[in-house]
Amino acid sequence: MKKYTTILFFIFPLILQAQSSHLPLGNDAYHTMDRLEIKSGELMPAHTILKPFDRRDVANFAIQMDTSQVYLDELDRLDMRYIFRDNNDWVTNEIGGEARLKKEYIDGDSVFYRPVIVQEKGKNYYEESRKPFLKHFYRTPAHLFEIDQPNFKFKINPIFYARYGQETGDTSFVYLNRRGISLRGSIDDVVWFHTNLYESQERFQQHVMRRIEQDSLPAVPGAGLYKDFRTDVWNTDGFDYLRGQGYIAARISKHINAHFGHGRHFIGDGMRSLFLSDFSNDYFYLKLNTRVWKLHYQNLYAELTSQHPRAGNRILPKKYIAAHHLSFNNILPNLNFGIYESVIFDRGNTFELQYLNPIIIYRTIEQGLGSPDNVVAGFHLKYNFLKRFSFYGQLVFDEFMFSELIGNNGWWANKTGIQLGLKYVDMLGISHLDGQIEYNTVRPYTYTYDDVPISYTHYNQPLAHPLGANFSEIIGKIRYQPIHPLVLQARVVYADFGTDNSGENVGHNLFADYLDRIIPEGSEDDDFGHRTGQGISNQLLIGQLSASYQLRHNVYLDADYIYRNRVSEDPTLEYTRNYVGLSLRVNIAANTVDYWE
Fold first, then answer.
1. E strand residue ranges, 348-454
2. Which residues contact 207 (CB under 8 A, 6 or more apart)?
3. Dihedral sign, Cα of residue 508, residue 461, residue 355, residue 194
4. What is the pLDDT of residues 270-319, one digit of tens each?
5. Annotated domain spans of the chain
6. In angstroms, rounded to a whole number, what is the distance separating the alpha carbons of residues 10 and 130?
7. Which CATH class is domain 2-586?
8. What is the DSSP letter of 429?
9. Which end of the chain is more exposed for a tag (fewer CB within 10 A), N or C?
């Protein structure tokens, strides 16, 4: 069976026809897309809950907004210029050999042309020319080297990230040294491909270092295999790890496309996701997207890594996830609604072929197999209103019984989570002053299972919210862009969560068997009386101020200040720390690990 599953995963993409490459998670265009969608008073044709976006969708919507009657100020148009530069795969200056362009901006040696034609034959139109470096490099502002031929497009860019900082109470520096390369392109407009590969040496802030060094199931946030590293420059220890993302994209029909490769996904409109987040390591996947009328239906099949001690020179245990999400745009004006379901299972390194059925409810299959697997389901919605606001939310169910849920008696198997959030653009009428507030709460034992290997995790890290379960959290963020190259941001995170005491399972640890749950205080057995935050009480407050200046396209200079304070019933877990750091990054999004305790 394993042989046939492997053949299916490798042969299927080869029979397809073309699609677009992904926009990397964290790219500046995601915030711009949010702003444009809210200000337009309309929902994007591409459903924003499913990330990463296709570059073609981003370019098309930016062109649509640029040529619409929606009022956009100079900063908005400069934001769209960034999108046109970054996604020039889908923006061209030729229509049958004739350029139809309108000069809009002059920026040094660069000339930016605003498109007049919205779309023709699936392409958008603009032109940007500049004096290349050494005749062949940076012929356009976004790409070190590119080939743009009718049957072959290819772009290559460097990846670099250097971060150095100091945290109170730590005699060693916090640092990051990351180097890599990004490649993307297409052949015959039939197959699209994308690869990111980079190596990192990093020493984290103390809360992360403590977690890595003391946890029985250690992991570097967002990474896989890691090695110890010591630098003589800073005379301190850290970790060395390699990451790679790569996939091919293709179209099965006019409305169905596929991506096949290695990477991460995010399902949500908020800062966190209770369905599937990009917190853990990359994984091997096949993704199918069906977009027709107002519907977007996504199937995701992936191979995950089960929990394990620190890895090295051996094959790691496998498990699998099959997930699908159906999203409906404009079910009412400006309202998006969707449903999600996933199942995680372990068949001894073999995929359960019944879960390949793309349109059946997984709970039906799972019960037919004897109910051996971990099923998670949920609903989401997003509503944009007044061309200023966007309300969003998620409701996730691992297990629940309605009679016990409304009884409010703390039944342990009411394993649920709730997210509520609000975005507000151009606050108080100030251009590019944008705010967001979000509340998340997940009950104890959510995402866990009595068969521990099939908990909702990957490579010793949560697949959904980074705090796991048994927590409540509120996040507030204000982002201000006074001028185009400069972004100022303030963020506050407050989390209340309960942790284990002397090995007791209070529902926070996703790698613990829920059959070993505690008997809550005041209860006669372990079935009732469970509450969110039970166990050792912890309150975590994080405040962050940051400034990011774009020196040139995708080259950023960042400055950060982070305050962390943890109060706990266990005095050994308490601390107060301040961090100050500077970063220089090229062609990569900023990354702050603020979520681990």
1. 374-385, 389-399, 415-424, 433-442
2. 564, 566, 575, 577, 596, 597
3. positive
4. 999 999 999 999 999 999 999 999 999 999 999 999 998 886 778 899 99
5. 2-586
6. 41
7. mainly beta
8. G
9. N
Closest CA to 184 of 195, 175, 172, 200: 195
Higher pLDDT, 40 or 98: 40
* Amino acid in position 9: F
- What number of other Cβ atoms are within 10 A of residue 11's Cβ? 9
- Strands 110-115, 101-107: pairing is antiparallel
198-240 pLDDT, tens per residue?
A: 999 999 999 898 888 877 888 999 999 999 988 777 678 899 9
pLDDT digits (tens, 9 = 90+) for 110-169: 333 334 333 343 444 444 555 667 678 888 889 999 998 888 989 999 999 999 999 998
Length of the chain: 597
The tokens for 409 are 């008696």
Candidate ranges 244-258, 522-536, 549-563; pick with highest mean pLDDT: 549-563
Of the chain, the end-to-end C-alpha distance in Å amounts to 42
Question: What is the structure's pLDDT at 469?
Answer: 96
Rounded-to-integer distance, Cα 433 and Cα 427, Å: 5
In the chain, what's the furthest Cα-to-Cα distance?
80
Q: Report helix, strand or coil for 545.
A: strand
Q: At what angle do helices 74-86 and 29-40 cross, to 10 degrees?
A: 130
Token representation of residue 292: 């027709």
The candidate with the shortest Cα–Cα distance to 409, out of 507, 528, 514, is 528
Q: How far is CA 496 from the centre of its chain?
A: 23
